[in-house]
Design a protein that fits this description.
The complex is a heterodimer of chains A (about 150) and B (about 160). With about 150 residues, chain A is an all-alpha fold. Chain A contains 5 helices and no strands. Chain A is globular. The mean pLDDT of chain A is about 90. Chain B is of the alpha/beta class. The model of chain B has no long low-confidence stretch (mean pLDDT about 90). Classes of the chains: A mainly alpha (about 150), B alpha/beta (about 160).
Chain lengths: ~150, ~160
Amino acid sequence: MKRYLYPLLRVALGAIFVYASFHKILRPDQFADGINNYHILPVFLVNLVALTLPWIELMFGMFLIFNFKAPAASLAVTIMMVVFIIAMISAWMRGIDTGCGCFSNEGEAISIKEVVRDSGFLIMSLFVFAGSIRNGSKENSQAETL
Amino acid sequence: MSLRKTILSMVIWGLLASAVGLCVNLVHPHKIEFIRTPPPPTVDDPAIPDPIEIDVLMANNFYAMGEYLFVDSRPRVQYERGHIEGAVNLPWEALEKYYDPLQPVLKSKPALVVYCDGAACDSSHNLAKKLIQKGFPEVYVFFGGWEEWKEMDLPIKEGLS
């Protein structure tokens, strides 16, 4: 059972990131407005982030699904989760009425529900990162033995 | 793989994905400017009078009369999530983009009622002042805005009007 947990979580996390990237890639204009509503980034950076972040999510999500560069992908995903959670808490505490923008460009305003959900994803990504590092070490030691 | 190599790999692949995203934007049907235009400067001219502020009861009276056009000054995403029924969206932060196509609608009513989220936001006040500067004779600011309108269970709509 434990053997299957790492690949299962890796693929699930990858699928979440691939899915989350779709609406942002399809509607960069709406995603940019969503980022702007957080009032965290300087205005000149908003569109650049809106254009690049979804593709980073998509690519590292695919990497996790296909177990390619898994340590780098899980590290990137972990960093993104930390940033998303900080951004959400910051917007929530400042009382900014904005949607999360996580899985759609509309939806309910940020609440504790989204923060808890993303914290769950963060725990998943930390587990996958640790697993990918461990797997990488095993592969290296096997290669050395051979 | 060492942590250093992992970080390097992440950065290189991340830059590659970013480059793809920037290139795709060139041919995207919903393409955006690479650098976002900052919001217009606020009107500081003392010759331009301040807009009259109204509360939710007055706003509801104006709404019921039907002769006032409600103008939502929040960004398009927030407007799509919900707005006062019948209100048009003129986002303060993208005024230049939305003003021209909306001008005939704005001029079709004798008076405008501008609102944003609530008392804490200032985009309704900024927009109202700009509209007065542009020559609109009667512009009000509903300072309770979207939050107060929702609390009072008054007519709202989701999506684009």
